[in-house]
């Protein structure tokens, strides 16, 4: 049962083996805070400089008790001790081996509890500092009854794709005492993900004092690939204070941000008041756009999805078996007539379009650019199918789900290939060769009546205006890696492509052909050509 007035049930009992006091025999600097303790539970230690900035926020009101609900080896509680010695540290840890190690590595006197934080009510704490485990919903494998438990606990219907760290974030707020403070570092994924809408709506109700997201090319955690965000919570502060969001690049920037919100300064020029945005908006893109000029938004006149459908590429379930090079086809006595031309790796294409000449280059380079799709089952094909069954390809997950295990998904060749992952400016590739692709690319398919708009859409997507639209929808990972989902592509803002006349589109097609022959294609070429057909003014 929850105990009021800031006390915790942890004060009420001492169970040997489940609740222990840390001795602090091993000094914390032996753990460098750069991801050395990555575990299956999804936890990674926090860099020391980031931990110090978080601790500075939590410890400013001099809390009597500070909780780390995912304590690990005690790094964050050590950071709090570096600010103030006179408080009682409490750590909850669910991993038994880590719990045992933490008895020697957590600050001396820390009350360590072997427990599942999310399923217990530890009471109210004046200070909470946390780096919750990053475990995706698929790995959590919660039953519907468990999801309903969390729905009731937090008073809202949660998306079933919600990740573990988001549940921690909501519960940390529940366990924060009046006038208490919390600092929580989590992946920034929820700021853009569909499940994050509910989380962002709750954040606007909590009204955090600040949210600092690290720039997309800054990766705080080795061995992981994610953009990080630090939330600074305070329960019961003046409701007139803004929910300030800022993009930062370093621990020093984060420390400056903490000092700025501590002084209750107004929203700065490089910041946003996140209360002004709808929960379903992509907040991460808004924050990066504030920091990166090239992500300036264009007026929303139409969406790519009004003219095109975007679908993921073909998933085989066993690329080494289904995708062969020309020489491998010959080795098995097969014919290219039983294969579709296919791009199997994003790195196989480097230009703005792929035509017959480009595909021939892949063939000569012995790329695996043929996808098995038998037109008939002749003796050589029977032998190859038997070969696949002998090694169990037909029993793998995806092949076993198909009506005929060795036939690929039915998918037309897309008009434009869309890179799933990219760095800097993505290249949208005009598919003049009519190739299929695996999941390294999504495919854009013209809707009925929009087939003639393919060249114009391709020019727009590769222009500066297209890059701005991309910057409003893409998802960010660590080290500057971007990702697009099919629905993101369909949500990209664009001009009303249908306003361009058929005659003008015919001229554009000739212009594209001339540029290909003369090797004139470039980023500036797309901007120049687009301005001739669809002049767009973008607000400053």
Strands, helices and their partners?
Layout: E1 19-21, H1 48-59, E2 65-68, H2 75-83, E3 88-93, H3 96-105, E4 111-114, E5 125-130, H4 137-140, H5 144-154, H6 164-174, E6 176-187, H7 196-206, E7 210-214, E8 228-234, E9 244-248, H8 251-262, E10 271-273, H9 283-291, E11 302-303, E12 308-312, H10 319-322, E13 323-324, H11 326-331, E14 339-343, E15 353-354, H12 356-364, E16 370-372, H13 379-390, H14 397-401, E17 416-419, E18 421-423, E19 429-431, E20 436-437, E21 441-446, H15 454-461, H16 464-471, E22 475-476, E23 481-483, H17 486-490, E24 493-494, H18 502-517, H19 523-533
Parallel strand pairs: 2-3, 2-5, 3-4, 5-6, 7-9, 14-20, 15-19
Antiparallel strand pairs: 1-4, 6-8, 7-8, 9-10, 11-24, 12-21, 13-16, 14-16, 17-19, 17-21, 18-23, 22-23
List keywords for this structure.
Rossmann fold, 3 domains, 24 strands, Adenine-n6-DNA-methyltransferase TaqI, Chain A, domain 2, 540 residues, disordered N terminus, 5-stranded mixed beta sheet, alpha/beta
